């Protein structure tokens, strides 16, 4: 039989917690810087009371080679199978989208999506007091 010493002393716990925090900080910084390091531009995002505006760089792709799909609060952008380069992205937005007021425009390799917000439905009804 082999016995290994087990250290059960609270003096060693703060060192482990510091190491965990350092690892979390390192991973957070690495993941935030990953798109810039790979040469990709992150999406530019703006929000107004009526809509969301999302700008994406998609050089080398034409209107026919891109597909934009709207979900309730998601937007998904894909290139078609025979496109010269592969592009795939999906974004989740904080509010439901209205497809009737949304539009997409592609100019000079920049895809601009104007995504209309759906008006929130209120379940509250005011009653008149007699």
Structural summary, described in words:
The chain is α+β, with helices and mostly antiparallel strands and 130 residues long. It has a domain at 42-117: Immunoglobulin-like (Sandwich), CATH 2.60.40.790. The protein contains one helix and seven strands. It has one helix at residues 13-37, and strands at 44-47, 51-57, 66-70, 74-79, 88-92, 97-107, 110-117. The strands form two sheets. A four-stranded antiparallel sheet has the order 1-2-7-6, with no helix packed on it. A hairpin with a 3-residue loop joins strand 3 (66-70) and strand 4 (74-79). The termini are far apart.
* N/C terminus separation: 87 Å
Inertia-based shape: flat
Radius of gyration: 24 Å
Structure classification? alpha+beta
The CATH topology of the domain at 42-117 turns out to be Immunoglobulin-like
The tally of strands reads 7
Could you name the CATH class of the domain at 42-117? Mainly Beta
| SSE succession | HEEEEEEE
- Oligomeric grouping of the chains: single chain
Family: Belongs to the small heat shock protein (HSP20) family.
Domain CS: 38-128
Protein name: Hsp20/alpha crystallin family protein
Domain SHSP: 34-130
């Amino acid at each position: 039989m082999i016995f290994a010493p087990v250290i059960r002393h609270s003096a060693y716990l703060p060192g482990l917690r510091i190491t965990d925090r350092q690892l979390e900080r390192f991973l957070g910084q690495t993941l935030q810087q990953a798109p810039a390091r790979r040469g990709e531009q992150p999406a530019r995002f703006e929000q107004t009371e009526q809509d969301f505006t999302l700008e994406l760089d998609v050089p080398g792709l034409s209107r026919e080679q891109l597909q934009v799909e709207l979900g309730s609060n998601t937007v998904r952008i894909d290139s078609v199978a025979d496109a010269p380069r592969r592009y795939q992205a999906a974004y989740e937005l904080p509010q439901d989208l209205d497809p009737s007021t949304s539009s997409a425009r592609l100019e000079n390799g920049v895809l601009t999506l104007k995504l209309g917000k759906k008006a929130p439905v209120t379940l509250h009804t005011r009653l008149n007091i007699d």
